[in-house]
Amino acid sequence: MSKTILQIKDLHAGVAESQKEIIKGLNLEIKAGEIHAVMGPNGAGKSTLSYVLTGKPDYAVTGGTVSFNGQDLLALAPHERAAAGLFLSMQYPVAIPGVATNNFLKHAVNAQRKYHGLPELDAAEFLKLLRQTAKEFDVSAEMLKREINVGFSGGEKKRLEILQMSLLQPSLAILDEADSGLDIDALKIVANGVKKWHNQDNALLIITHHLDLLNLIEPDFVHIYADGHIVQSGDKNLAVELEQSGYKNFLDAEK
Amino acid sequence: MSLLQTVKLWGENIPWFEGLREKGRIAFEKVGLPTAKTEAWKYSFFKEDDLRNPQIDMTEHHCCEHCEQHSALPFEALKIEYCNGRLHSEELPPLAGLMIKPLVEAIYDKDVQPYLNKSFDLEQFPFAALNTAYLEQGLFILLERGTTLSKPIYICYHHHDNANCLCHIRNVIVLENSADATIIEHFDAEPNAIYTQNIVNEIFIGNNASLRHLTLQNEALAAHHVLLNSVEVKNNGCYRSFCAQKGARCSRQENFIKLLQEGAEAEVNGIYRLVADKQVCDTTTNIRHLAPHTLSNQLVKGVAEKAGRGVFQGQIHIAPNAQQCEGYQLHRALLLDDNAEIDCKPELEIFADDVKCSHGAASGDLDKEQLFYMQTRGIDEQQAIAILITAYIDEVIQKITDDSLKNWIKQNF
Prior knowledge:
The structure holds 2 protein chains of 2 kinds.
Chain A: E1 4-15, E2 21-31, E3 35-39, H1 46-54, E4 59-68, E5 71-72, H2 78-83, E6 86-89, H3 101-115, H4 123-136, H5 141-145, H6 154-168, E7 172-176, H7 184-197, E8 203-208, H8 212-216, E9 221-226, E10 229-234, H9 236-245, H10 247-254
Parallel strand pairs in A: 3-8, 3-9, 6-7, 7-8
Antiparallel strand pairs in A: 1-2, 1-4, 4-5, 9-10
Chain B: H1 15-31, E1 55-56, E2 78-83, E3 86-87, E4 98-102, H2 103-108, H3 126-133, E5 138-143, E6 153-159, E7 165-175, E8 180-189, E9 195-205, E10 210-218, E11 224-233, E12 238-245, E13 250-259, E14 265-274, E15 280-289, E16 295-304, E17 309-318, E18 326-335, E19 341-350, E20 356-364, H4 368-375, H5 381-397, H6 403-412
Parallel strand pairs in B: 1-7, 2-6, 5-7, 6-8, 7-9, 8-10, 9-11, 10-12, 11-13, 12-14, 13-15, 14-16, 15-17, 16-18, 17-19, 18-20
Antiparallel strand pairs in B: 2-3, 4-5
């Protein structure tokens, strides 16, 4: 039996300031080798889930547990969660003026190596690694010299997110609306990169509200997420059913 | 103890020179140390207590054993050193078209007479008046017409003891027409040294001449540092300065720049860091556009890492006849400590009607989204903050055109 990577039990969480609960008793188990898709209507709190898992300071967990590779995920600082193997491809990657992309990536790779007690890569070693990876994602040397995400198109940003995933080799990658704002070519690059990375030892959680990406990366499990918890789970057919009938039926059925 | 004491100084028998000192004494007695009520000093006035027990350094020069190591530099330069406020280098390297000599020698030879104390009004600058009363230590640098220096002149000021001496240094720098040079000033000290440094640079830039002036102020954290760059720029001459400050308990870098003739240009860029509580770091600039078609640009960025105070006072004055001038100014600061304070006072005095001027000021915190983004990639919070600070000031460092100097600043700031 393959090992459990992520185990969420009865999670309650929300925005720290407003004390409004957004996640209301969520349960989810993800095992190595699996691809899960969480689908839900706009405003259901899908992004909240990704932020709570990665430890964004503005969010507070009010109940439940999250175990990640056997560790208590919620006890770790955001950078420790990343180093422990959790990766988030953000819906809106953040621009950082003044920080060159290649420099940023080197900091990230070496910070994680340092965390694991590995020697840091020197400039030449890192450049070699980066060149190989960049090629796969159609990221040019010129783009790597630019300030990270500053003036990048939607497609460039998402390609760079997946490039980071490939460099950092997480055990669980969360793709939060990875398909938003992408044309079909860019979507294919993202999907191919993800498929290349995915193997029997890691897992993928795709958060989306439509089918485009799921047609390219076939999920093993589909969960319908509404009002802060999972209302129904199934296989890929559930996504197809959803596409035909819309969220309304599932939400009404629950009531 | 008064700041004006009778001390034995060189050259008391030279009437014109002793007359200058006398003018300095009279001016200082009249205006005294600036106080909180002195408009130009209200954010960063030095209390007499701050200067503790100021003594004029009358000792002979004794260098420490590390003296030769003061200036291990990653770039080629003509090196000149001050040690505990006294000119250390006795033999200055000869170079075609360049005259460098100790101030006293230039006074004796009268080379410096046409320039000394000619660029500013004593009563307007109390510390410069005090500096004038004690004129002795200093340099005279003159670049002859059309000379381009192949390597920068590097002046290092090193302090290594805690005698709390009050050092007055005057450098007079003259670029004749079409001369071109880079001058670097590096203030450096043993961490426990205690002293007050009072520097006046008088800088004269001739027609079509160009000076790049780089300053790295890394004084000991108990020291006081007051510096005035009094600059005159003639026809199509250009003064470009870059100043990085992070040392001293209280420091003030003042730039008083007169764009005297058409086409004269000044660029004043700076970065500062407040690395200790109660540290005060003041950048005060007064750029006077006195002729048409003159141009000035200022960009200063500060980072308050501790509960210190950053001060930026930027005056742009455009005289009535100075049409079609451009004067731009921007100050930005990052406040990383809740008790840090930034005082910013832009002043535009515009008497001509066909000019382009702007000023801007902003201060704020680090962007939390950027910090989180880095953390989700495994970079811890402390390193993420360091990366963002570096990125913040890099915009200003990029204005330095020479790569080796750029890297030197990055490594030492």
